[in-house]
Amino acid sequence: MSKVLVLYYSSYGHIETMAKAVAAGAESVPGTQVDIRRVPELVPEEVARKSGYKLDQDAPLIDGPEALVDYDAILIGTPTRYGNMASQMRNFWDMTGGIWAQGKLNGKVGSAFASTATQHGGQETTLISIHTMLFHLGMVVAGVPYSCPELSNMEEITGGTPYGATTLANADGSRTPSENELTIARYQGKHVAELAAKLAG
Ligand SMILES: Cc1cc2nc3c(=O)[nH]c(=O)nc-3n(C[C@H](O)[C@H](O)[C@H](O)COP(=O)(O)O)c2cc1C
Fold it and tell me: Domain 2-200 is of which CATH architecture?
């Protein structure tokens, strides 16, 4: 039995949808237990309401950084903020100094997925900003292999990168994750769960 965590932050629900697809892919691997958790919101509730944030997300909040230690693999999902992970996600990981110092995440699989408003709005830089952190934490970084055919789909505008699954939200948030993007997200979840099972041995 291996344990996979899908840990995400989402203001408007695009990454929430992607997180569910990533989790479904991981769950398709026999012997895998998958938990979906959110990191805490930092924006005051009144501001979040006025900004139209999706506040009714059913995933529970993660129970502090120590909870990470229970998992064999962790997939991190975040919308981009100027080409980087959202501060809500950064804030959570800024509290992992203690487990970093003890090498408690060494050898676990780490992976990332992201969302941008626009096609060239920083998907890869956001994913790589997470990868950099995962390397510091001693984790084994995984993306999406090109054996996933949807990565090479040129028939439509689509997210999806070898660094991790992505979606495009549009500037007004009106676009929802496409079937092509969700298929890549499921592929990533399955790939990471298979790696976790191998490493957990
Ligand atoms: C402060 C801020 C900065 C943002 N920076 C970018 C950006 O650099 N590139 C981009 O394409 N979208 C940018 N966005 C749009 C968000 O990435 C978009 O709303 C998000 O991907 C939607 O995902 P969600 O529904 O899970 O929150 C930004 C949004 C905010 C609020």
Answer: 3-Layer(aba) Sandwich (3.40)
